[in-house]
Design the sequence.
């Protein structure tokens, strides 16, 4: 079983739409969670950390449900510049490594 | 930019050859992690180096090896290259091994023919 499972998409949404991405993780002992963004042929960049209480950064909201081992990312008022692959990431419990999902591809259409 | 640099940017090798990839960590960072990202997949953890010692390893065979130097730059070596080794190789640096935020370099694209 994969450590992190994500719907690969693609998601094609119009500008201004709200879009949600979800992922699940397998290790209930995991403590740290993140969303990374990866543009085509570029390196992943940290978008935001995910906290149990939920956290918001502008148009982006991340939620964590420990009981269901489920992480979500909500993007409101989508911009063309939001087009990218969004990677759900869970920090390993044994080594200080990161487990990445396969990524969800988002295209925002004018 | 993250300040993490990698070289070369692109590389073409043939099956059975050996390759060395290099990474310079962000100034002040003593931890480097290496990841392999195959096309259409998320990055997969290869190993991590902290203060010149291996500090964790993913599910990769021994022909994947590494080094970290006193200035905290790092090398990834892959022997006996296979076609499936074709991927983007990413290194990420962090301030300490326990720090959660990892900053990625632009990667090296390796094609094995």
Sequence:
């Amino acid at each position: 079983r994969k450590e992190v499972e994500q719907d690969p998409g693609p998601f094609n949404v119009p500008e201004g739409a709200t879009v949600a991405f979800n992922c699940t993780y397998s290790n209930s002992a995991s403590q740290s969670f993140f969303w990374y963004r990866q543009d085509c042929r570029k390196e992943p960049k940290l978008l935001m950390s995910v906290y149990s209480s939920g956290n918001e950064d502008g148009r982006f909201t991340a939620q964590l449900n420990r009981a269901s081992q489920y992480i979500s990312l909500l993007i409101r008022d989508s911009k063309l510049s939001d087009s990218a692959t969004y990677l759900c990431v869970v920090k390993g419990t044994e080594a200080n490594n990161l487990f990445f999902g396969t990524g969800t591809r988002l295209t925002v259409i004018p | 930019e993250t300040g993490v640099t990698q070289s070369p940017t692109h590389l073409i090798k043939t099956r059975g050859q050996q390759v060395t990839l290099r990474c310079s960590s962000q100034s002040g960072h003593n931890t480097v992690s290496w990841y392999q990202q195959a096309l259409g997949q998320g990055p997969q953890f290869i190993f991590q180096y902290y203060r010149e010692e291996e500090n964790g390893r993913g599910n990769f065979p021994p022909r994947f090896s590494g080094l970290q130097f006193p200035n905290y730059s790092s090398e990834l070596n892959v022997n006996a290259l296979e076609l499936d080794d074709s991927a983007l190789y990413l290194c990420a640096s962090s301030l300490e091994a326990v720090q959660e935020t990892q900053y990625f370099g632009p990667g090296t694209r390796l094609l094995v023919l």
Q: What stands out?
A: The mean pLDDT of chain A is 92.
